[in-house]
Design goal:
By secondary structure, this protein is α+β, with helices and mostly antiparallel strands. The protein has three domains: 4-272, P-loop containing nucleotide triphosphate hydrolases (Rossmann fold, 3-Layer(aba) Sandwich); 279-377, Rossmann fold (3-Layer(aba) Sandwich), CATH 3.40.50; 388-525, Alpha-Beta Plaits, CATH 3.30.70.3280. Helices cover 28% and strands 29% of the residues. It has 14 helices and 33 strands. An eight-stranded antiparallel sheet has the order 28-25-27-26-30-31-29-32. Strand 30 and strand 31 (498-502) form a beta hairpin. The protein is globular. The two termini are 30 Å apart. The structure holds guanosine-5',3'-tetraphosphate.
């Protein structure tokens, strides 16, 4: 393999969590370990606090800050780690889902007090779909959380994944004494605000040794012995293959804000997390070690600030070596383009780069050439697959307020939906345009951008739908009949795929059971 050394030292991953579980805090601690930042508080949270604002320009300002932290690259013990940030705000969930298509593994942060929350569930669904390897970090052990066994059971059940404890906590909240590392058989005593260097692990090969009683007290030592016996009997050693296949998730307990238990996780992460791997395309599987470059766009960031009206396409390198100023083949547009200022995202700044390797994410200035899922190659025609689209949750009819600007409106809507800001559906047999989004905010963004960038005024009319399902059938006639019969609820998406828009779960279930020859899909794929 030509670039073997570069590829094997890369780890590309994302941290995912329900808002407030501690993603930003954990990110910061990892960057501190990597030496990418020197002081705590240096990472600007791209979290948009629920209560803080509903003003999307303010949100955009914060999002602007977060472009620099969209990808954070740092080195740790010779490994090059690409940490892809995901937006915390629920309304940008689609962005997060797509980011997950560009990583090789994830760290899932769970708040020990709240357990599995709504966003945790949804994000894990995406990981499960892709068999993404997951490491779980159970955070906020310094708070009175749920019983650890109950919590693990809840996570396993709710997220449908087997867990494998790598560390085990001794109490929680005020009584939190630390964790026992089952892997290297050592005890880590909790002290608030641990500095990166002064975590002292006490080696305890034999849990029956009195050293344990001395360190944590007889009662807790006895409890720990009991717990560990149970945990070891159930789990045995971690099977790395099962982790890599996304079947088993190693679990760590800690407290991100206290920088406790983070190093243990990072050490295990660099040891077992997958290096960049091959990917499926519409034509064949592309091997990560191939000489020729290929990559795909998984996110487009448009700046709403009129002073900086730039778009950045985020591209994941999948094979070969990307080089600045070299011509690459844009498969969908069938044209060759080159990039004079591609940049990498070192945590401190955006730097122009000369080259990039599989696993890396590069930022490409875009003047409207890209849409989500676009593929660049050295000439071959294929698209990377596995980039999902999920059903929006809010649907509104797009109403043109200025018939003189119809063309501009259509162009604007096409481009914005290419960027992945929203989904566009056209009602079957008519031409009512329906915009689907995850959150109300996007409608404001769309309205604003259509006016600012395309001079097109529009408004939205609320529609009574709650979910879009993509339809397929082996019996085309049955499908056509259904679409005709349910005209009010039928539409096609941007790629012409038929979609059923359901008013409620009840209607949806009724249609599913009344139409056994039609398959209702809850996701679609960009390049299929
Ligand atoms: P997020 O990115 O997942 O949304 O979460 P973030 O890291 O911003 O953490 C959310 C809140 O939880 C923060 O407090 C943070 O300080 C706190 N936190 C993170 N890790 C721990 C932990 O291990 N233990 C405890 N007790 N708290 C933790 P905040 O009050 O919302 O923000 P701030 O004012 O402290 O920044």
């Amino acid at each position: 393999m030509k670039y073997e050394k570069e590829i094997n030292r890369r780890r590309t991953f994302a941290i995912i969590s329900h808002p407030d579980a501690g993603k930003t805090t954990l990110t910061e601690k990892l960057l501190l370990f990597g030496g990418a930042i020197q002081t705590a508080g240096a990472v600007k949270s791209n979290k948009i606090k629920k209560h803080a604002t509903s003003d999307f320009m303010e949100i955009e300002r914060q999002r602007g800050i977060s472009v620099a932290t969209s990808v954070m690259t740092f080195e740790y013990k010779d490994n090059l780690i690409n940490l892809l940030d995901t937006p915390g705000h629920k309304d940008f969930a689609e962005d997060t889902y797509r980011t997950l298509t560009a990583v090789d593994s994830v760290i899932l942060v769970i708040d020990s007090v709240n357990g599995v929350e709504e966003q945790t569930r949804r994000l894990m669904e995406v990981c499960t779909m892709r068999d993404t390897p997951v490491i779980v970090f159970i955070n906020k052990m310094d708070r009175d959380g749920k019983n650890r066994f109950d919590l693990l059971e809840e996570i396993e059940k709710e997220l449908k994944i087997s867990l494998h404890p790598m560390t085990w906590p001794i109490n929680s909240g005020k009584d939190f004494k630390g964790v026992y590392n089952l892997d290297n058989k050592s005890l880590l005593l909790f002290t608030a605000n641990t500095k990166a260097d002064d975590e002292d692990a006490i080696s305890i090969d034999d849990l029956n040794a009195t050293l344990l009683d001395e360190k944590v007290g007889e009662r807790d030592a006895a409890q720990l012995r009991e717990d560990i016996e149970l945990v070891e009997a159930v789990h045995g050693d971690l099977n790395t293959e099962e982790y890599l296949a996304g079947k088993v998730a190693p679990v760590f307990f800690g407290s991100a804000v206290n920088n406790f238990g983070v190093r243990e996780m990072l050490e295990t992460f660099i040891r077992i997390a997958p290096v960049p791997r091959g990917r499926e395309t519409s034509v064949r599987k592309v091997n990560v070690g191939e000489d020729k470059f290929s990559g795909f766009v998984f996110k487009i960031h448009a700046n709403l600030d009129p002073k900086h009206r730039d778009r950045i396409a985020f591209m994941r390198v999948c094979s070969g070596k990307f080089e600045r100023n070299k011509y690459y083949h844009h498969v969908r547009l069938d044209k060759d383009i080159r990039f004079s200022n591609p940049y990498s995202f070192l945590a401190r700044s955006k730097d122009v780069i000369e080259d990039a390797f599989p696993g890396d994410v590069i930022g490409l200035f875009d003047t409207g050439n890209f849409k989500i899922g676009d593929t660049l190659t050295e000439g071959e025609n294929f698209y990377f697959t596995g980039i999902p689209t999920f059903s929006p949750e809010i649907f509104k009819e797009l109403v043109n307020k200025d018939p003189m600007k119809t063309k501009q409106l259509e162009k604007g809507v096409q481009q914005l939906t290419d960027e992945g800001v929203a989904q566009l559906f056209t009602q079957f047999g008519g031409n009512k345009k329906i915009i689907g989004c995850v959150g109300e905010l996007q409608f404001e963004v769309i309205q604003y951008r259509l006016l600012q960038e395309y001079g097109a005024a529009c408004e939205f009319r609320t529609l009574p739908f709650y979910k879009a399902c993509w339809l397929t059938s082996n019996d085309q006639k049955k499908l056509d009949d259904f679409l005709r019969f349910k005209q009010q609820n039928s539409a096609e998406d941007k790629d012409g795929k038929p979609v059923y828009l359901a008013q409620s779960e009840w209607f949806l279930n009724t249609e599913i059971s009344n139409n056994p020859d039609i398959v209702f899909h809850f996701t679609s794929e960009v390049n299929k």
